[in-house]
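Hi R.,

Here's the chain you asked about this morning:
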Amino acid sequence: MNGSVSQKIKKIIISLLVFDSLLLAMILFPNKKSVKSEKRVLLNPAALSEVSFISFKANENNLSQDLLFEKKALGWFFNYRNDNSEFYFPADKKNLDSFLEKMAAVNEVTLKSKNIKSHYNYGIVNEDNETSFTVTLYDKNYEPFTSINFGNVNYLSKSIVFSVSDEANVYETVDVFSSYLTLDLSFWCDKKIIPDFLFNQKYSAVNESNEYYLRRGKIYTETIDIPSSYILSKKFDNGNSMTLELYKNTDSSYLVKPYFFAGSDLDNNKKEIFLKINYTYSISQMTANELSGEGFYE
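And the predicted structure, written out as C-alpha cells:
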C-alpha cells in the first residue's frame, strides 16, 4: 500500500518537474514562429518617381520643427524659418534619393503591439502624445502616399520601431532610417559650393569626375553683422553664374553667402528658383584660398 502511494507521489513530482521544465523553456526560448512578421515596404515602389514633397516633422522639448522638401524642375529644394529669417536651400540629392530608396525597399517587419497606448513606451509619441518624428511623402497635388511615425532605435539589434499614420499597430524593422531622421540643415543642404542645380536641369547628377570643392562647415542661420571681406564670381558655359560674398570670422574661417543667376535660356519658373535661394554656410581659410582654382574671380 505504502509502496503504491509512494510511486504515485513520484509520478506526480516527475510530472510537475517536466511541466515546469517545459514552461521555463517556453519562457527562455519562445517559439519564433509565433512572432508575426512579414515582408513589406513603407512606400509603394511604383510611387517612388512620383514623390514631389517630403515632410520631416519632429516634436521634442515642447518644440515642433519641420522641413518641407519640394521637387522642382531643377531638382530638390527645401525651406526653413526661424525668428529672424526665411531660408531656401538646394537639397542634397544623394541623401534624399537614398532615403526614398530605403522607404521603397522590401524589409522584414515584425508586429510588436496592437495597443495604441504602447506608442509612448516605444517612443513613437512623447509625453504630450505628439509624434516624435513623422515622415510624410506626397504627390504633386500634395496628396499623401504614406506617413510614417518613427520611434525608438535599438542599437544592439540594429532595429527601429514605427507606426503607420494614426494606426494603433507598432512594428519593428531593420534600422536603415535613423541616420536620415534629422532636421540638421547641413546634412540636407547640397554639399557642393557649386551646387548641382546649376547644371542638372533634368535631375541628372553633376559629373563627379570633376573636382568640386565641398563646404565642410555648417549652415549658418544667424544675421550676419560683419562687413564682407571680398566677393568672388564665376560664370558657366550654360549661361548660369554665381557670386560668393565672403565674411571673415574671428577664428579665420569664412561665412559664405552665395547668389545665383539664371542664364537667358531658362524659363521664368526656373529663374524664380535662382532668385529664391537664400542660405549661408562656413568654410575654412584653406577652402577660401583655393576657390580661385575653380575659376572664381574677384
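Residues 120 and 126 are 6 Å apart (CA to CA).

Let me know if you need anything else.
M.
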